[in-house]
Specification:
The chain has about 180 residues and is mainly alpha-helical. The chain has one domain: Helicase, Ruva Protein, domain 3 (Orthogonal Bundle), CATH 1.10.8. The chain has helices spanning about 20-25, 25-45, 50-55, 60-90, 95-105, 125-150, 160-175, and strands at about 5, 15. A two-stranded antiparallel ribbon has the order 1-2. Strand 1 and strand 2 (about 15) form a beta hairpin. The longest helix has about 30 residues, at about 60-90. It is globular and about 50 Å long.
């Protein structure tokens, strides 16, 4: 759980969960705007240029296009549900408990490990870009979800060097991006 050490009136350090505060911060607003913009972009693409591009694909690639676009659309709708529920909590329209109950009904689709099968390489570059952006958004939302529920692990409470903590977090983030 992501915690911060605070001293109480007796000088004893106690841990408090900061995950929900992080989720309610400005970082969420950026994630929300980015997520909703991606949903709009993908919808526009699939209804316009994507439809045209899919007509020119060979049979195998056409099947891959249908599968991947359906998978992407499903995942983005799941993410939209989570984002809208969290925004309602942040704006005081829902209690965190009510939102958690609703979020439990939204099951995130895991990132397929077998992506890249028959016809995938022949998919339009735009669709592949949207798939990659959807995967990154999914990772960020699942991290926020774990933070909000207090399930994410953070640095130990005893850690006193904030700069070293930030550097190690940056290293970990860059390592994840370079995979």
């Amino acid at each position: 759980m992501v915690e911060q050490a605070v001293s109480d009136s007796s000088g004893t350090q106690q841990a408090i969960a900061i995950g929900p505060r992080i989720v309610a911060s400005g970082g969420f607003d950026l994630l929300y705007r980015e997520g909703m913009a991606l949903i709009e972009e993908v919808a526009g693409y699939l209804d316009g240029d994507g439809r045209e591009e899919s007509r020119a694909l060979a049979r195998e690639a056409s099947f891959a296009y249908a599968s991947e676009s359906m998978r992407l659309t499903t995942r983005l709708m799941q993410l939209a549900s989570w984002l809208l529920l969290q925004r309602a909590v942040n704006e005081g329209e829902l209690t965190p408990e009510s939102a958690r109950a609703e979020k439990a009904k939204v099951t995130f689709s895991a990132t397929p490990e077998n992506r890249g099968g028959a016809g995938y390489d022949d998919l339009p570059a735009t669709l592949k870009t949207f798939i990659a952006r959807g995967d990154r958004l999914f990772e960020r939302v699942t991290q926020f979800d774990r933070l909000e529920r207090g399930l994410a692990s953070g640095p130990p409470i005893e850690t006193r060097n904030g700069v070293a903590d930030q550097l190690s977090r940056l290293r970990a983030a860059y390592e994840r991006l370079s995979r």
